[in-house]
Structure formats: C-alpha cells, structure tokens
C-alpha cells in the first residue's frame, strides 16, 4: 500500500458574501505501508479536509491523491473512517454493528465470524449481543474501530477518535489501537488535537498551519515502537526525548493559535 498526495489544494467556494477558503495549499505527502501518520495543528488548519480527500469524500481543487497507483476518485472499501462520533446504529447489537459494512458488501455469510474476530481483538468478547446504547463511550468507540477493521481496508482513517473519552480510557484506547496496528499491519492516518497522543502513537507526524492549510513540519517518531517493544506507556511519555519534542511541537502550535486569535 502506498498513498501519494501530490500538490493537492482545496478551495471551498465563497458562501454568504464571504471570500473562498483555501483550506489546503500544495500538500505533498507519502504514506508507506504500515505507516502510522498523525496530523496535528491549530484549529482550521485543514486536518479534516485532508482526511476527507484521502477518504474520497472530497476532490482536490488541484493536484491528486494516488492509492496503490490509482487516482482516488471517491470513497471505496479500501479506506475506512472512524469519526469522533462513532455513528453506530443504536437499534443493532454489537455484532450486527461490526458486521454491518461486510453485509452491505454482500458478504453476509462470513460476516458474523469476521465480526467476532474483531470484537475479540478489541476486547469486546461477551458483548456480541449487547445493544450498543448500553455500552460505555470507550466501548462504543471500540465497536466503531472493530467495524472499520472488518472491511479489511488498506488504510484506516481516524478523525479525533478518542477526543470524547476521559483521560484514563483514552490512554488505554491509545495502547489498544497501537497493539491492533501492530497485529493487523494496517496503515493508519489519525487526526488528533493532543500533542502527547500524536507523539506516542505516530511513526510520522505532520504539523499543519492554517490560512492557508499546509504542512509546515514533519517528524519521524520512535515512541510507539518503544511501547510495542515492551517499554511501559507512561515511561515512554515521561522520557526526556518525548518531553522535549512535546514542548517543541506545542510551541509551534501555540504560535499558530496566537496568529489565528
Ligand atoms: N464545507 C466548507 N465550506 C467552507 N469552508 C469550510 C468547509 N469545511 C471547512 N471549511 C474551512 O476550511 C478550513 C479548514 O477546515 P478543517 O475542518 O479541515 O480544519 P481542521 O484542522 O480539521 O479544524 P478543527 O481542528 O477545528 O477540526 C477552516 O477555515 C474551515 O472553516
């Protein structure tokens, strides 16, 4: 799997007497198989617009998005999206929610078995028949991730998936997502507002700036691999290297926030 974004820009047309918005300007990004790319940046810098381009929900005004040699021309089963609001179907139980995408693709006979495998991977065994409204927020978000994984996407796109969780649940979910990333070998593109989450989870970090939205900094990150090699998460996050980079990235983002304010 290789994703290439070449000179992509997005201009939202003028609305209600306002000027057009250059949400993304000249974005270039290479994502290799099994990369875990994290996008971070001040509000309005175009993170969701970039995710929507990769998902195919939006077409670039200029430039192109290429996935495995083919231009992205719309949404497809090779890309799954997990949103902050998980968009589960409240009248269905956990298994039926997780199997939903496969059944839509006409793979009904195998769907339940595949769903149960991902339900187990996300630590939800025993809840297959529970209605989703009866689950905690953290469990519902895990159902959403299981559902996205059942379709076996080439790339998993996540827009602030853990933003609504309390601090402890969020840390546990970060660790779980990293273990699943390792086990499944998926390629991940994740948006977050948390600098600590970005540094801990990503293998590649892009920092974006607004007006127009563009990539201003890129970092290769070693921290998730250290955690997966057995170093406890808190120890990784408390290391001097992690804290120094966290402060550097925070300075970049605060400078952008002040310019916008
Ligand atoms: N449909 C739209 N029409 C017009 N402008 C839009 C539209 N969607 C987003 N924008 C504008 O484009 C810019 C980028 O928005 P986007 O939501 O991609 O940023 P973001 O970095 O994801 O923001 P946040 O962190 O607040 O979610 C912002 O100025 C936003 O107001």
From TrEMBL:
Gene Ontology molecular functions: ATP binding; ATP hydrolysis activity
Signal sequence region: none
Protein name: Taurine transport system ATP-binding protein
Entry's family note: Belongs to the ABC transporter superfamily.
Pfam (any one): ABC_tran
Gene3D superfamilies, sorted: P-loop containing nucleotide triphosphate hydrolases (3.40.50.300)
Keyword field: ATP-binding, Cell inner membrane, Cell membrane, Membrane, Nucleotide-binding, Translocase, Transport
Lineage: superkingdom: Bacteria
Listed InterPro entries: AAA+_ATPase (IPR003593), ABC_transporter-like_ATP-bd (IPR003439), ABC_transporter-like_CS (IPR017871), ABC_transporter_ATP-bind (IPR050166), P-loop_NTPase (IPR027417)
CDD domains given in the database record: ABC_NrtD_SsuB_transporters
ABC transporter domain sequence ranges: 5-235
